[in-house]
Specification:
Largest sheet: 7 strands, mixed
Number of domains: 2
Strand order of the largest sheet: 1-3-2-4-5-6-7
Helix content: 40-55%
CATH topology of the largest domain: Rossmann fold
CATH class of the largest domain: Alpha Beta
Oligomer: single chain
Low-confidence stretches: 1-8, 122-127, 142-155
Number of helices: 11
Shape: globular
Distance between the termini: 28 Å
Strand content: 5-15%
Structural class: alpha/beta
Mean pLDDT: 86
CATH architecture of the largest domain: 3-Layer(aba) Sandwich
Amino acid sequence: MLENKAMTTKKILLVHGWNYANYTSSGCTDAWASRSKFVEALSRHFNVATVNLPGFCGQKDPKHPWTLDDFVQHVDQVIKKEQPNYILGYSFGGAIVLRWKKVTGDTRMKAFLVSPAILRRYRHRDLSFVRKAFKTMFPERFISLLRDFYLTQIIKNPHYANATEVMRETYRNIVSLDLREDLLDMRDSLTLIYGKNDSATPPDLVQECLKHSATHHNLHIISGGGHDIANSHTNEVVSLIMKA
């Protein structure tokens, strides 16, 4: 499950994001394969360890739908085994690392959050409004079928449409999370790196939140970058990590 490249004595653990192409059911074997250039660049400076989360790239689906805290507990076990000096979370992986920092109170390990899914901006509404309106009128099973039809056939959300049943429910548990309170409660300084043009996890939402933070966090916004800055701005992201 883990890959190590013993380049230096300093180890960094990489926690990947939620990519439908990385579902185990899709045949993926390495969650970082699509960002191999980024991993290679980091390997010049760190001993890199990567982890495939449950449901992704060869790892079995959870036995029941997981919440963010379930992923946090899983990563905590990996951390205890690997004993990294640094940890990096990408997109949803950034959400996991942020919550891990909060629940453990860790101040020893330097954390880098790249395009972290702390706050999201949605182009489409989900069916929560339908459920609230119809829950007293129709059976829950009908509402679930309606939601599934909407997400797979109307907006064609690939993260949902390509997922197994348990991963669909897991996705629903995490996709609408608002982690601004986790960020505001953080007492350990974090390094957050975003692309200015990131439409999935826009940096302006976090930038506004940080105005109310008692802790100084290092927020870097890369001009011209989108959500996939690990590929589009590899050297710039690695440089920011090395300077932190």
